[in-house]
Amino acid sequence: MADPDNYTDPPTFLSHLQRNPRLQPYDFWPLVADSTVIVQHLSSVVIFICCFVGIYEDKVSPSYVSTLGNVCTVLGWGFWDYWVAHTQAARVIPKPTATPGSQFQTSENDRPDDQYADQQRSRPSSRDSELAGLGLNLNPRGLVVPSDSSHPQSMPSTQFTPSNPSSASSATSSQIYTTQNTASGHHPFTSPLSPRNQQRLATMKSAVLIYCALLGLSPILKSLTISTSSDSIWAISASLMCLNIFFFDYGGGVGAKFPASLSTNAALMSSTVLASRLPSAAHVFSLTLFSMEIFGLFPIFRRHLRHESWRGHLALAFALVLVAGGGLGLVWSTEGSWQAMLLGMLLWSLVAVLGMGGCSWWLIRLQHYKNVVTGPWDPARPVIRAGGWE
Fold this sequence. Notes:
The protein is mainly alpha-helical. The protein is built from 13 helices and 6 strands. The strands form 3 sheets. A two-stranded antiparallel ribbon has the order 1-4. Strand 5 and strand 6 form a beta hairpin.
């Protein structure tokens, strides 16, 4: 009996069998270090819940919460602005300068505008011949210069009247105004602020706008769920907080513009429905503003801090664990004593340490059950590297 066409003898067939060829074993301490991101976010959620419970039960003043959040936000924004400015300054490459006797030649993109305009005036083109009746030359940068370069300042404005009505649309009033100002030695208005200072000013304007808008919407948010029972509010807010925790972008880098939009929106919605149960508009404003700071801005600061300083990242994680534990102790205690705060710090720190170590060890143990069998019968998988395809 003849063998089929695709027959392969067992020794040859099993010689190419591979088990877990791309398995990367986990190490314990790197996993523990990476889990600090999760601990930071969980502690942030616990801090927000403790602030809400304290405001709801009149244990904490809402002005104290909002003031402390504003101070921390301003400090964090200062650090973030310094890091961004330092990163942008490191990316700037100084242009080489020509020295006497050197053979350095500048390109057209590196030449000043005056030299570029002179060069373009010396190059005839079909575009110049079409606009000969205007008495102007248009270079590719959009700068309108007189066609007669020998008398740049004596040209009256009447010489800019187009002789061809069909080409009148190319000589706009803004171009004529720019040409007259350039010929008379005046330059267009430029802001005295640097681009970085302009961005800082725009950030401050946005912050003031959000602050005022939230202040005006607080009475509306207070009556948002007036017809809903408290049990439904607690269930909705708990579900939204769980969405925030499970869908948060724990591996996002500093380049993410709007990371974890679902997680952020769920947290803000949860804070909104919780704030609607507070007694006054001032309480609603304080809690909503604090939620925007801790769920919208604080994750950006944490990413940059982890990118800039690993020790600062660990110190922040330790501080958040202590603050969250102290808040839990104050909320659970009827008297709010410092002994309860210390006990809460101890218990939450113990939970964080056991969770980090236990989950890391559990993930390492799960790798023993990983069994991926590959061989020549599987379709080829391209490997993308920096140098190209393999």
